[in-house]
Amino acid sequence: MSLLRLENISVHYGDMEALSEVSIEIQGGTITSLIGANGAGKSTMLSAISGLIPCSKGSIYFDNERIDNLPTDQRVELGLIQIPEGRHIFPYMNTKENLEMGSMSKISKGKRKESLEKVMEIFPVLSERANQTAITLSGGEQQMLAIGRGLMASPRLLMLDEPSLGLSPILVHEIFGVISRINKLGTTILLVEQDVKAALQIAAWGYVLENGQIVLSGQAKEILESDRVRKAYLGL
C-alpha cells in the first residue's frame, strides 16, 4: 500500500528549476533509496516533502491525504520525519536531552519514555553516553544520535539525508545495518544516499535522480545491476 506519493512536483529557486515534474511512490513497510550525484535535487525533494520549501507544481499525498498545502509541523504530527544531512544535533545539550527534543509532537510526547527505551536498545552506546555533551561524541555517535532523535518522533515515514556522510567504512556498515533493523521494526524509510551500492543493497525499490528529474526507477536490485548506474555511479 502506498504511504507517500509525489505526483509531478516541481520546485524552483527563483528562476532555477531544481525539480521538474517528479513522481515517486513509496510503499508502506519498505526501504526506498533515492540516489544521484551532488546537485541532482535529492535534498530538495526531501525538503519539499517535509514542507520546508514549497512546490511550484504538483501534489504530495501521505496515506492518501493531500499534504502539500500543510505546514511542516502538521506533517510532523502525521508521522513524516526528516533527518537532515549534517546531523544538526544540539551540540551543548547532552545525549538524553537531544533525544527528548525529538518527542515534541502531540503523539510522541505521550510515548517519550517508551521511545527512549527503544532508542537506547537500538543504540546501546547512546545509553552509555546519556549524560555526555553531544558535541563531544564521535561522528558515528552523533549520527546515531540524529537517527535516534528522529525515532523519538514516532515516525511512520523516516527520511534520512546522507546518513553515511563523513563516516568510516566500518561505521557506514554499522549505520546501514541499523537502518535495516529500524525498517524491520516497522518504520517505512526513504533513504537519500551517495553510497549507491550500500543504499540499493538494503532497499526494496530505488529511484535515480539526475538534474532534477527521475531517470530510472524499479526494484533496487535491478537498478544496482543496470549498466547506467554501474557506469555512472560505481565506475564499472
Structural class: alpha/beta
| Dominant shape | globular
Beta-strand fraction estimate:
25-35%
The residue-averaged pLDDT reads 93
Explain how this protein is built.
This protein is an alpha/beta fold. The protein has a domain at 1-79 and 188-236: P-loop containing nucleotide triphosphate hydrolases (Rossmann fold). It contains eleven helices and ten strands. The chain has helices spanning 42-50, 72-77, 95-100, 106-109, 112-122, 124-128, 139-151, 169-184, 196-201, 220-225, 227-232; strands at 2-13, 16-27, 31-35, 57-62, 65-66, 80-83, 157-161, 188-192, 205-210, 213-219. The strands form two sheets. The chain has a six-stranded mixed beta sheet with strand order 6-7-8-3-9-10, sandwiched between helices. A four-stranded antiparallel beta sheet has the order 2-1-4-5, with helices on one face. The model has no long low-confidence stretch (mean pLDDT 93).
Q: Main traits of this protein?
A:
single chain, 236 residues, alpha/beta, Rossmann fold, six-stranded mixed sheet, 11 helices, 37% helix, 27% strand, globular
Secondary structure elements and pairings:
Blueprint: E1 2-13, E2 16-27, E3 31-35, H1 42-50, E4 57-62, E5 65-66, H2 72-77, E6 80-83, H3 95-100, H4 106-109, H5 112-122, H6 124-128, H7 139-151, E7 157-161, H8 169-184, E8 188-192, H9 196-201, E9 205-210, E10 213-219, H10 220-225, H11 227-232
Parallel strand pairs: 3-8, 3-9, 6-7, 7-8
Antiparallel strand pairs: 1-2, 1-4, 4-5, 9-10
